[in-house]
Amino acid sequence: MADGWLQPDWTGKPTDLRGQVALITGASQGIGWAIAETLAAAGADIVLNHYGATADTVEQALRSVQQLGRRVLPAEADVACSSAVAAMVERAASEFGRIDILVNNAGISPEFPLEQTTDDIWDRVLAVNLKGQFLVCQAVVPHMRAAGYGRIVNIASEQGLIGAADMSAYCASKAGVFGLTKALARELAPAGILVNCVAPGPVDTAMLADRDRTPELASRIPLGRIGRPEEIAFAVLFLASPQTTWTTGQIHSPNGGLVMQ
Hints:
There is one protein chain. The chain has one domain: NAD(P)-binding Rossmann-like Domain (Rossmann fold), CATH 3.40.50. The chain is built from eight helices and seven strands. The chain has helices at about 30-40, 55-65, 80-95, 120-145, 160, 170-190, 215-220, 230-240, and strands spanning about 20-25, 45-50, 70-75, 100-105, 150-155, 195-200, 250. The protein has a seven-stranded parallel sheet, with helices on both faces. Strand 4 (about 100-105), helix 4 and strand 5 form a beta-alpha-beta unit. It is globular and about 45 Å long.
């Protein structure tokens, strides 16, 4: 990232996020990093959550946001741990005085056949990918309620829509994100908080296995290629925008046409 692909003047544009604060989980690399850069370029200050990333990786992500002229707060926390999440959110609220946007991006995707999926594997995947989103929402929503405003974007996957062999825990967790999104959208609408979901197709990140980067995969995608992280980030930017006022409880799947709902 930070290669010059996004250098617009956001002044007066519908995607102007100046004065807002965005908390992004799993933001030190891949799609999360692209989201952090995109929201920062639109004017938002960033709470950059990470867990298990190297110091160099985190520093590079922090520097990319700072170079866009925005404040950034690094926040190491395991989203599956309620006490760590609570501490992260309180620190962010104390530092910035508000949290306007939450992007639940943290996730893991181990691949195991059904017979090799142990209790520990299943529990950890569900804890990070689904419970983690619940816990961060639970900690952030009181701050949004107090402000009478909020935008929550939960990151899922098109595999939660169609399934994938050897990924039962991952697919179940992402399908659960769809249900969580819809339930919270109904619950939080009266408070002025919009909750939506982005379910990407195959994207060029470290999470996409080398064995999946094949001409055969590209041939099944109507647009003929896998996606780029910034393309997912633009979808998040739309849903995080203050001008997006009549969209909630929706699943948006940028996937090149691989899945059509």
